Amino acid sequence: MRLLIVEDERRLAQSLAKGLRAEGFAVDLAHDGIEGLHLAREGGYDLVVLDLMLPGLNGYRVCAELRAAGDETPILMLTAKDGEYDEAEGLDTGADDYLTKPFSYVVLLARIRALLRRRAGRGDALLRLGRLTLDPARRRVTVGESRPELTAKEFAVLEYLAMRAGEVVSKGEILEHVWDFAYQGDVNIVEVYVSALRRKLGADWITTVRGAGYRLTEGDAHA
Ligand code: CA
Fold first, then answer.
1. How deeply is 60 buried, as exposed, middle or buried, from its count of CB atoms within 10 A (0-12, 13-18, 19+)?
2. Same domain, 80 and 160
3. Which has the higher per-residue pLDDT, 203 or 111?
4. How far is ligand 1, taken at its centre, from the CA of residue 63, in Å?
């Protein structure tokens, strides 16, 4: 899952990005409202963490502009405790949730996961496909009785495929949602991760659809 953090307090932004990357998210940063809006409009984000008080363009306006353009990416707004923020106003401009500073990182992470689940239309915290179960909060995968150890990136690729189970997902889409903006390498890096997943999960979960991408399915062997 790829996140955009728009936060002008650079140290806070860096530490959030570091924590979220360690959880397997791809994270891009913007430090003012104009840059944030520009990046958000480029698309490809699964969620935006948006500070309210920002130079250039404040969080309300960034949020309102995105919604006016029909962008429905979940937005978690960060606000300070000093009464600068009217919660109702934030939600009116189209934010999906808000968090008051100072907040605990654990709460932020839980809110992000809840918004991502809601967006995917899932109430359940686990992703299930036949004998395959993914637990995004613990980054744990089980296949029947076995519990393969995946790296953060392998898990992120599998999670994205699982969220779109049964659909053909292109390498470009996987790259866009799992790698951050700074990644300049080859789209074929995705093949390396898919090979590793096949090796660890069993070969028939991920089907190659020639010229189009990959599809995660239960497969005959798992029925
Ligand atoms: Ca700020």
1. buried
2. no
3. 111
4. 15
Q: How many angstroms is it from 9 CA to the middle of ligand 1?
A: 6
> Which residue, of 59, 85, 119, is where some domain finishes?
119
Cα-flanking dihedrals φ and ψ of residue 86, to 5°? Answer: -105, 110
**Two tokens at 114?**
């809840």
Write down the pTM of the prediction. 0.81
Q: 107 alpha carbon to ligand 1 midpoint, in Å?
A: 19
Any bridge partners for residue 146, and if so which? 143
Assess contact for 47 and 112: CB atoms under 8 A: yes
* Residue 154 three-state SS: helix
Which domain, by its residues, includes 146? 127-222
- The pLDDT of residue 71 is 93
Give the distance (Å) from ligand 1 centre to CA of residue 137.
28
The CATH number covering residue 106 comes to 3.40.50.2300
Structure tokens at 116: 């991502």
**49 and 7 belong to one structural domain:** yes
Regarding whether 137 and 100 lie in a shared domain, the answer is no
Confidence of residue 102 (pLDDT cuts 50, 70, 90): confident
Which residues have their alpha-adjacent CB atom under 5 A from ion ligand 1?
8, 51, 53
